[in-house]
Write a structure and sequence with these properties.
By secondary structure, the chain is mainly alpha-helical. The chain contains 15 helices and 2 strands. The protein starts with a helix and ends in a 15-residue tail after the last strand. The C terminus is likely disordered.
Length: about 375
């Protein structure tokens, strides 16, 4: 069955990502470190898939991840080739982005979220071995990515490639997802968890305040501070969060919105940034800058509206990738089976219950 609390966290994360990219508010990264949370959720669900299916889970995860990227690439890669992108073998990375695929000037900005898929692919590939190690030595395996990040950020390895830094930052969150799936975070006693969270918040906050980036206190520019702060956040929301969130569905409308954003999270993530880039030249001449509340509100609403349109148009690809029946708007009511024979108490029961919804996929941020 779906865990509605995890659905809610992913819903909040994807909304935060879109709003942040529209507004540029650095404070949003501190209030809700969305990328680390999405990687932690993905790690938890990847561990569940590996337990259930073994190494075959890797291929299934790729199958659910790549088709939505191919739809995006089918539109934007020809557009970039027509506007100056050289046609080289590296263009094939748009089919399988194990490294940053090439882009021209406008494409580099509009398609910048592709880094998430690059990291995600490598994390999926590393997961079978990482989970094997984690089961045998949980704490050293969990700490290893953070040690790599400290080595890079402390200057011991100053020229490390960017993906190594992101591996240290976000694979640590992925491993916390392993710990969540194993129940380790929930089993942590308060006498351990509370001091750990306080130390991480204090250390992360101090590093953030003393190492501001080009956008101020934006976690995306302060990697070590991001790791410390995000780890504390994940320990709280996954270690002390509720086991479920049935209240999400008390409102049919809100429950449906949460379901739609979860089922279409990858489409929303991939397509929102092109719209952010496209509308900026239209708004700035009107004086609706990022300092104007009205202009920002209109930008946010417009981006979500445009993303909604494209999600209606191509979001069903996520259903096909997950081997579900394609739906224009996910989350509709399922029909129950025919009424079966009466029980010994005289009450009739359905002969076959509607199949529970598939587990939330790790391939959608």
């Amino acid at each position: 069955m779906r865990n509605r609390y995890l659905d809610l966290l992913r819903f909040l994360a994807i909304v935060r990502v879109v709003v942040y990219h529209v507004t540029g508010f650095a404070s949003l990264t501190l209030v809700f470190p969305a990328m680390a949370v999405m990687f932690a959720l993905a790690g938890s669900l990847m561990a569940a898939s590996l337990e259930r299916s073994g190494p075959a889970a890797v291929l299934r995860r790729l199958r659910r991840l790549l088709p939505s990227l191919w739809v995006l690439a089918a539109i934007f890669v020809p557009a970039m080739l027509l506007t100056g992108l050289p046609f080289t073998p590296r263009v094939l990375l748009w089919l399988f982005p194990i490294a940053d695929p090439p882009a021209n000037g406008w494409g580099a900005m509009a398609l910048s979220p592709i880094w998430y898929l690059r990291d995600y692919l490598w994390f999926v590939f590393a997961s079978p071995v990482a989970l094997w190690l984690f089961r045998r030595a949980p704490l050293p395996t969990l700490l290893a990515p953070y040690v790599l990040l400290v080595v890079i950020e402390s200057g011991i390895w100053p020229n490390a490639p960017g993906p190594y830094r992101e591996f240290g930052l976000y694979f640590g969150a992925w491993m916390l997802g392993f710990a969540h799936h194993a129940g380790m975070l929930r089993r942590l006693a308060n006498r351990v968890l509370v001091p750990a969270v306080l130390v991480l918040v204090a250390a992360g906050g101090a590093w953030i305040l003393t190492h501001p980036g080009p956008r101020g206190y934006d976690l995306n520019d302060i990697h070590l501070g991001n790791a410390l702060w995000s780890t504390a956040f994940i320990l709280v929301v996954l270690g002390r969060g509720p086991a479920s969130a049935a209240w999400v569905d008390r409102s049919a409308l809100f429950g449906r919105v949460v379901t739609v954003l979860n089922r279409r999270a990858l489409t929303i993530y991939l397509w929102h940034m092109p719209f952010v880039v496209a509308i900026t030249p239209l708004f700035d001449p009107l004086g609706w800058t990022h300092e104007d509340p009205r202009g920002l509100a209109i930008r946010v609403v417009l981006v979500f509206a445009l993303v909604g349109v494209v999600t209606l148009a191509v979001g069903w690809v996520e259903d096909l990738a997950a081997q579900r029946r394609p739906e224009l708007i996910p989350g509709g009511r399922r029909r129950t089976g025919p009424v079966g024979p009466p029980t010994s108490t005289g009450h009739q029961v359905p002969a076959q219950r509607a199949a529970p919804e598939a587990e939330v996929t790790a391939g959608r941020p």
